[in-house]
């Protein structure tokens, strides 16, 4: 019998020091986690395995994920489960608004999985969550991080008509990598959504996020930033892609903090009003401070 030689173990590249964070466990974190379980709510902080969950939850802020925890798309970079979602829970807007009121939040981010199985992509649930929150906590500012609704203008208008304070839709990566990274997504559709939002509701700032480390080139990033400015996007977040599991899209490399500072400078030079750029930056990271900084810069 031939002797079987075991394969050498495959090791991941160790995370650099600037990406290491403390494990969560503060009293505020535990309180918020308990409330989420009590009300059967989901957060993208948990589902997407965000490295900032300890910091954000310690400060009593979270990104609520509505419309369930199963996505109809299977983007290769994303840790959220995909498959056939459960039916829409019509009581969810009330439960989310109740949680926001209980926490007495002054700023909240509401996002969702993609729901391509729904006629409106879930836009009515976004609108209902905004309205229910406004009714209970009028002073709370609301940022929505929405899917592309498969390009539906009516769905986008339904969300904007509910009056969010910031309209966020992530670009995620450069055009060349869309087919690999974004199942069901289209780069042109992303630009069109941001453009339509700005034209339909010019008083609502538009925001987007881009990941680096998927294999993009610097000039591709600059071109993408330029396209986003071309449709009037005013707020940009730039963060490091971190591979959730070995089944997800491979990470090409870690960017150094100096590179993030360089990308921020480029984006600001292109005309973005506010840019958050760093290894741990995510779409909702420091969202409250980002909105404040945008307002100050816009008024300057």
Question: What does it look like?
Answer:
The protein is of the alpha/beta class and 300 residues long. The chain has a single domain (24-299), classed as TIM Barrel, CATH 3.20.20. Helix content is 38%, strand content 14%. The chain has helices spanning 27-38, 44-47, 53-58, 92-103, 123-136, 153-161, 178-181, 187-200, 218-230, 257-270, 287-299, and strands at 42-43, 63-66, 70-71, 81-82, 107-112, 141-145, 166-168, 206-212, 235-240, 274-277. Strands 1-2-5-6-7-8-9-10 form an eight-stranded mixed beta sheet, with helices on both faces. Helix 9 links the parallel strand 8 (206-212) and strand 9 (235-240). Helix 4 (92-103) runs parallel beside helix 5 and helix 9 (218-230) runs parallel beside helix 10 (257-270). The longest helix has 14 residues, at 123-136.
CATH fourth-tier homologous superfamily: Aldolase class I
- How are helices and strands ordered from N to C? HEHHEEEHEHEHEHHEHEHEH
CATH architecture: Alpha-Beta Barrel
The top level CATH class name: Alpha Beta
Q: What separation lies between the terminal Cα atoms?
A: 78 Å
- Structural class from helices and strands? alpha/beta
| Poorly predicted runs of 5 or more residues | 1-11
**How many domains in all?**
1
Count the beta strands.
10
Helix % is 25-40%
Question: Per DSSP, what share of the residues sits in E-state strands of 2 or more residues?
Answer: 5-15%
């Amino acid at each position: 019998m031939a002797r079987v030689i075991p394969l050498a173990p495959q090791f991941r590249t160790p995370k650099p020091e600037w990406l290491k964070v403390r494990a969560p466990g503060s009293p505020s974190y535990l309180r918020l986690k308990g409330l989420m379980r009590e009300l059967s709510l989901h957060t993208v902080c948990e589902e997407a395995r965000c490295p900032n969950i300890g910091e954000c939850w310690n400060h009593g802020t979270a990104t609520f994920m509505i419309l369930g925890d199963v996505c109809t798309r299977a983007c290769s970079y994303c840790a959220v489960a995909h498959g056939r979602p459960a039916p829409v829970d019509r009581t969810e807007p009330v439960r989310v608004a109740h949680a926001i009121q209980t926490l007495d939040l002054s700023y909240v981010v509401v996002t969702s999985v993609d729901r391509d199985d729904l006629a409106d992509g879930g836009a009515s649930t976004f609108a209902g969550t905004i309205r229910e929150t406004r009714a209970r906590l009028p002073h709370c500012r609301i940022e929505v991080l929405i899917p592309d609704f498969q390009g539906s203008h009516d769905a986008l208008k339904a969300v904007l008509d509910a009056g969010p304070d910031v309209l966020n839709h992530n670009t995620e990566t450069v055009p060349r990598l869309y087919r690999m990274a974004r199942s069901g997504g289209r780069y042109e559709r992303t630009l069109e959504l941001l453009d339509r939002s700005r034209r339909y509701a010019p008083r609502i700032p538009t925001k987007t996020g881009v990941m680096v480390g998927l294999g993009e080139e610097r000039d591709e990033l600059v071109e993408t930033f330029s396209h986003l400015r071309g449709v009037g996007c005013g707020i940009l977040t730039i963060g490091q892609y971190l591979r959730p599991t070995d089944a997800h899209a491979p990470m090409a490399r870690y960017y150094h903090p100096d590179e993030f500072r360089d990308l921020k400078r480029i984006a600001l030079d292109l005309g973005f009003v506010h840019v958050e750029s760093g290894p741990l930056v995510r779409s909702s990271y420091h969202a409250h401070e980002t909105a404040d900084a945008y307002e100050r810069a816009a008024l300057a």
